[in-house]
Amino acid sequence: FKHEMWRDELQAWLISKESENIIEIFKNLKYEGHQGLWHILLFPLTRIFDNPISMQFIHVIFSTCTIFLIFKYSPFSRVQKLFLTFNYFLFFEYSIISRNYGIGVLFIFLFCTFFKKRQKNLIKLSFLILLLSQTSFIGLLLAIALFLTLIIEEFIFYRNNNKTLSIQYRKKGIISLFISMTGFLLAFFQLMFQFRNYTLAFPPKPQQIFDSGGAMLNSFFPIPSIGINFWNSNLFLSNEVTLVISIILFFVLNYFFIDYLRNSKAALFLYIFSFSILTSFFLLKFSGYFRHHGFIFIGLLSALWICKYSSKKEISNSKKKTFNYTFNLLLAIQAFAGIIAGSIDYFYPFSAAQETAQFILSKKLENSFIIGYEDTAALSVLGHINKRRNFYYVQGDREGSFIKWDNKRIRPIDSTKIVEKSLEASSAGKNVLLILNRSIDDLNIKKNLFEELFVSSDAIVKDENFFVYKFIK
Predict the structure, then answer these.
(1) I need a labelling partner for 6 at 20 to 30 A (CA). Which of 66, 350, 354, 381 fits?
(2) Are 319 and 237 in contact, with CB atoms under 8 Å apart?
(3) Would you put residue 137 in left (φ > 0), alpha (ψ -120 to 50) or beta?
(4) How confident is the model at residue 198 (pLDDT cuts 50, 70, 90)?
(5) Band of the pLDDT at 164, cuts 50, 70, 90?
(6) CA-to-CA separations, 411 to 343, 422, 442, in angstroms, rounded
(7) Is the dihedral of CA 107, 37, 298, 268 positive or negative?
């Protein structure tokens, strides 16, 4: 209730809301770079509820199920489970913030839960791989990692136990393979028909190498800077001393984790492969943010989970103790980060869009001709005005709700376009409102043309502070 939704959350809501049917959802996703499962889940909610808070309710149900799986079925200690409850990624990025990544984590942990009796649950595991591959591109990469891990584990199990595949199990395997491959193909088709640049930046530039290194450190030590604009900042990377300490600690922890996982080839493969494919993605394509980097940690957590139930050598007590100390240290750091992030989000608005929308509604201005700039920020305000269907977005020179990242959308824009559109709408007898995520002074627009009505509180997301102006005829 204390988290004010920002543009990425409301973009998904508006896409589902404005789509007439499921097919149209996929058409509207062509600029998003994501598969459509989350939007399909939101589609019936947008038909039942006007308020996007319903999206937050269903999202917290998913994240609660994730924590339930950890407490009920994971092999971790009670202390570790408690730390995981307040883990930065599980508590903040994949729970408080309503995105498609949260359901991906739920599917991954469901996979780990069913992995214990994998011969019996082979079909269920393949369905989870299918669903995971529909959540996001990151989810697709993890789905491939889990798929290959399952194949490796089954091969090792049957080889070590000198067993031959029964006819019934072969049939199961074929069906499972078909389901998993269907999931991969569906994901690839969705991504293939989206208007995105899929070329890789090779060879990587020094900045890309630095950013991918930062992604690794963020996945282990997401300690935010203390302050209102903490999000996607890392206190450990803020100066040379803490940077060096975090790098050393990262490699030391990884040494102990890999040493522990060496007892299970399948679990070791899962962590190394997921780590490699994700860091390669961050290095060669998209450096990402904390929400993306967190999946490196999710890959580690999954590997440690299935290690308990995979074919493995006996682990010595000394190695178990060393692992528990290092794992507890990592989880304690991340829980500390989660509590900091959740606390700051509790006391400060994450986005000022909700506050701005409430002002507009309180003054009964929602039926005005509303011009939004920048469009990426203004859509957050629109998402909170339930009965309103669109704003005029200057960058695309069109009325709309969600952002279309097409070639028509230009940035930056000439501020004279705002004045021209205001004059045009005013001449047609409309009351004109201007919603900006910066002061009108920054756009070099004459002040005598607009009256300032509202200035929002400072928000955690820097560019979702808002100014509302009324055009003076």
Answers:
(1) 66
(2) no
(3) alpha
(4) low
(5) low
(6) 35, 19, 15
(7) positive
